[in-house]
């Protein structure tokens, strides 16, 4: 029997093969390389806090996406309301699954237009990070509780999370740089690039309630918007915005049907049809002729994928899934064709182009959202629940304000202690409550406000 080779010989062989395999670059020839797409300048890849060079296996934008993907704020979205609370149903979307679907739609549409897919993906994954418990209902409650410190807005809270509250890098003076994303990714994540005071006017002359930055987060905002005039969104932010609209317009309808809240055949009834048209205009298209909404609804009903009735069987679930898929393709392709027709076939990135959405497509998307608004969001049966949710958040804010740092998480307790004035301390309280999931908000309220034993401890 042959004598087995000794360990030193085996080790020498491994080293020999590695040298041949990895070559001069120290990497195998099949290893991925960072994607460098045209349309992005070196300043687009800069970070607020400069970082030393890292492995070339990933691009700067791939790192941005990874930082968001691994953030605690993204994980918490799994227990935050999209339309219905996560514990009400095991089918309906949560904020997390919605964000993943938006990222899929946005990544593909952005790539087809020449955007870096990781920049768009990062923007889509982060677009709802700032949402508090209980969805838009919770957002309204926190806004009412923070009027004296600049208000609360989910999109402004997203920037605050990316550039301050999520921890990855710190400046030498101790200030947090948040996840320290690149300029391009931060700009792409900013859906409303203006402060509340600088919000553009709507058609009725009133300023829009949406804004993307609080005044105390202006330093990072001014850094990533350097060289950009006015309030235009970057190309990647526009793709993210459209992907969000497309995704929730069809998915909220699908969820409502599966949850038994309505059937699309109801729209053949004149009263139901009028309700949807009214809600679409009231919530999304106040300046649009009702006849245009009616025409959009008729076009959607005329598609061969429209599911008038679903009975919960596997076949009907497949039909619903095909409807959502086909409508996503319908809306995305219409925007792709219209944008390419205006701006040609060059890569469309940053502030060099705009997403073009045909008017008919825009109305169709709004009409889908109007269906969900009519039967789900504005349902009379849910109004007592909404009132209770606002009460929970209001009483939590009041309690934390009265008790100072006592019950705050260590990070927010630190913000409270370091705040220069009551304005900063109030913002720390709002940040704490906004960070909670639906279930933890209910738990904290039960234990702290209602007096049950508070079991949370920090080691």
UniProtKB/TrEMBL annotation:
Top-level division of the source organism's lineage: Bacteria
A single MF term (Gene Ontology): dGTPase activity
Region (Disordered): 25-57
Keyword Membrane: no
Keyword annotations of the record: Hydrolase
Domain (HD): residue spans on this chain: 95-249
InterPro entries named among the record's database cross-references: dGTPase, dGTPase-like, dNTPase_2, HD/PDEase_dom, HD_domain, PHydrolase_assoc_dom
Entry keyword annotation includes Hydrolase: yes
Any matching Pfam family: HD
UniProt GO BP: dGTP catabolic process
Family statement: Belongs to the dGTPase family. Type 2 subfamily.
UniProt cross-references to HAMAP family, sorted A to Z: dGTPase_type2
Name recorded for this polypeptide: Deoxyguanosinetriphosphate triphosphohydrolase-like protein
Organism: Citricoccus muralis
